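Marked as duplicate of an earlier ticket. Keeping the data here for the record.
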Amino acid sequence: MSQPPDIFSYRKHWAHKLGTAPELPMSRAEMDLLGWDACDVVILTGDAYVDHPSFGMAIIGRLLEAQGFRVGIIAQPDWTSADDFRRLGRPTLCFGITAGNMDSMVNRYTADRRLRSDDAYTPDGAPNRRPDRAVTVYAQRAREAFKGVPIVLGGIEASLRRLAHYDHWSEQVRRSVLIDAKADLLIYGNAERALVELVHRLARGEPIEQIRDLRGTAFVTRGRPPGWHEIDARALERVAPLESGQCEIAPTDGPKTSGHRPERARTLVRLPSFEQVRKDPLLYAHASRILHLETNPGNARALVQAHGDRDVWINPPPLPLTTAELDRVFELPYARRPHSAYGAARIPAWEMIRFSVNIMRGCFGGCTFCSITEHEGRIIQNRSEDSILREIAEIRDRTAGFTGTISDLGGPTANMWRLGCKDARIESSCRRLSCVYPQICRNLDTNHGPLIQLYRRARALPGIKRVLIASGLRYDLAVRSPEYVRELATHHVGGYLKIAPEHTEPGPLSKMMKPGIGTYDRFKTLFDRYSREAGKEQYLIPYFIAAHPGTSDEDMLNLALWLKRNDFRPDQVQGFLPTPMAIASAMYHTGRNPLKRITRDSEHVSVVRKQRQRRLHKAFLRYHDPQNWPLLREALRAMGRADLIGNGKRHLVPSFQPAGTGATPEGQRRPPRERLVQTLTPGPPGPARRGRARRPPRS
């Protein structure tokens, strides 16, 4: 990979002479105070505007401002007409459209498709301030407001819907969001490189329909440009047709070339078309597998998928930012607070992250239910130690209400900072979906020494009393460094540490690409030991997933028995939510396993679809709740495990039912809905995830 230009090396646009805005304008009155007659770029977002580097619209806005462009923000516009989309006038260059830090459907609905009662990204947590499929709706309204203005999509919702994708809420395969939104360009993943070059080229007068060479972008086109070599994805792996004969796929050993290997940079892989993957689950699973095999920016090829007579073209992923670039991105002049227009209104997502620091991006874990890889990639992008410490000092000196505790130093994971492949050449050619599953790769550097040093320097800063770690911890990496576990348990846990084994049984764990429960046990042994040595009473709080593909009723029963043996009584229930483009979502939709080569005889995956079985799987996690006992008794009898019903310590549920709980007679009343914690992109954000939120994060 040749190193691209530094994103801060471009010649600044003329408007840099107007200076830096104290906060990016959301009204014409604010534009007038800044002396602007127009915005060059208007960002439309489904979130409230918080000028902080944990929020994607703030990063993009401040980055473009640093390039000399005038950037305005329309946050949570009224989408019932185009009027609100004209609030800042016609942008001179383009609209940038994002649903916000979360996919709008995940934000608005639970895994059981029920409307949520609040929205952490809205003032005072008010619901219903964004439409379903916000990217598409905003793009349509922006086009109505100002015809001819280029429309660029970005953020998590656009990233995960860039190709034909299974949509859990409509239970069908939907087209690429580019087609539905009628957008000119889509930027997926970390958008800085592509967006900076794009806007500078637009400012030079280059038509957006001619800008087709940017990594990390997608667009709609007709025909193949000259000089490109096309490979049918089905030629990369043998795929057998379904017995119904819906598609005819001729197995082949690969592309034929005239005596030479085609240049990878000029090779595109044609995926099965939208029409094919919509009708044929086998081809959908195959397309998902190929997509995930083409995500390493060092060796990925362009992907093309036909939608009718047009092609959706996906350029290879963006190249990661260097440490120096990432430092500058996070040290732009953010106000580090919500826009003043919100007054005293609470924005829950902001309140959760205002004392936390993002130290890295990306994740090489590859968990199949998680969308970090599809969005941020597997290569870890690190901030420097000094930059992180400067942000801690800035929180101390500028953030109202700070009492001396940093709530998190983390990201998508707590302990992948400065970890990565030992050899850049191996990293650029690797096609593994995970660096840690089924075993930790021998080429992976797992040295936690730099992270330990960062923790020590952070807590030694004047005015800093405590530095907590709340991001999702990869305990399979942590056990490689007992000294890290000691440091964590001694200084950086506030009584409880959340951790995500996800399950105890090999079947579902193999479909999640998560380590076995034995690794959790080894970590717990170290954690308990070092907590005792520090004289602290501290506990692990494990997260588990119900109804994940590959999970049987027996698996959930065994998990419930493990919870009872270990005296865990989960307060919250995690229901599997199939988000677009995740591997586990492909398993859920197709019943096949894209972790392996897809053929007619490839592995079938059991899927939990019916609401009753989903309730049962969640009930096993909350085996201690009397409201769940009638359902569990009925299931245990059907499974031939009535021996687990009784009033002794060895029983899972008692034979009696307390008055006022459960159903009378048994089984007639549906258990009340539990509080759900989303598996993938829920809750208020952590500091780390650009374009998406975290829960506290899990990996």
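See parent ticket for discussion. Confidence is low (pLDDT under 50) at residues 240-259, 664-699.
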